[in-house]
Give the backbone structure.
Amino acid sequence: MNADLVIHNGQIVHPDGIVDASIAIHDGQILAIGAPDAMPTATETFDAGGLHILPGAIDVHVHFRDPGYTHKEDWDTGSAAAAFGGVTTVFDMPNTVPATANASALSDKHAIASSRARVDYGLYGFLGEDTIANVPEMVAGGVIGFKLYMGETFGRLPTPSTGAMLEAFEIVAPTGKRISLHAETASIMARREARMRNAGRTDPLAHLAARPAIVAVEAVSRAAILAEWTGARIHILHISSAEELRPLAEAKARGVDITGETCPHYLFLSADDYDRCGGVIRVNPPVREARNQQPLWQALTSGVLDIVATDHAPHTPPEKTRNDIWTVDCGFPGVETQMSLMLSALPLRHASICDYVRWSAYNPARIWGLAPKKGAIQVGADADLAIVDLGREMVLDDAALQSRSKISPWHGRRVKGLPIHTLVRGRFIMRDRILQDGTQGWGRSVHTIQSMPAARPRNTDATMEAIVRF
Ligand code: NCD
Ligand code: ZN
């Protein structure tokens, strides 16, 4: 069989080592990996000399805002930002307008994403107090998983009670879909924020004071208990503190199907940056004291944390620079800068580029059942590739972002290691740092699970459905 494209001279990065080999691609998939003279004849050859070839990153936590907040981002600009960040698959959050909470909102978002996205994508369905009954129609309509907000954040979607959360877990458990949690407990934050506001605090550090680590520790612990009881698979989003690692590790040790993610802003920024950044740094959960950074890095290395994702949360400059911190929108863009930030830091943190590939691509694919099609460079997999120059230095510049949101705490930071070319299913989406024309609509939904152990619901005789039947 002839190949469409053969890439020569690159260093292929696997989770367990680096291999010097050529890659042949046919029909969007990897056809062969091996010595240059063992490659089939190809329509096009490409020289990746001096570059490393990574599986494209799978960012399981982005907010592309479309439909509803397209002045902040849309599928076109968001997926262009992904391409520049070496990200070949994104999972989009449901806090859009309308929220992705039923079959019709889901089908509308599928229509927009499939016509605009340049990279592959999964769509999250929203689990709220009153949307539990919609789980079957959302599964049928094609979701990658579900999202549940245990605390209020941007979009002000109301937080479900623990009762509704338990019922949601019961209903999702047998589907095998994973529930991703914004694990911050609403009632603790609400009281503390009210107290701070009454005391007249409007400065950026008041945001951190209102959301101490216990807010997240309590939520992670409670979510783990409900997952253990119901057998639901869960993923803890944006872990920000050292203290959350204990309930996460303990639940894993008990056999709970729980995974954890952290984000670059918790690994690189700290309470010391609030003065410099002002409201731009406001994000949920908050960037915390510097002492949290080393334990988070350590947890990635040890496997207590599974994933680096970005919580790409774009807003406009006016929305990020209001004087009163309580009125500043939470979050900032990240999908485009994650890979460079992480690659820059690996030597300092005694981690390797193989570790990075595990956190950014291999583990996300495995955890959501997308392996072996996604997340690793192997024969039969989709040719989703980030081709990076580890020696290339750059100063991050908000004005140069592809994202519609041109404001972030990363502005002015020097990085070393840059994605130069990005391929999604064998097609160049970015080439030589240039976005490729006509790539809108190339992205496809990845919601069909390829490989996942069977669902294992527990305590099924005590579910809401069981007692009502009884
Ligand atoms: C996110 C957003 O803007 O949608 N904001 C944030 O501060 N992280 C919502 C979220 O992920 O909590
Ligand atoms: Zn969140």
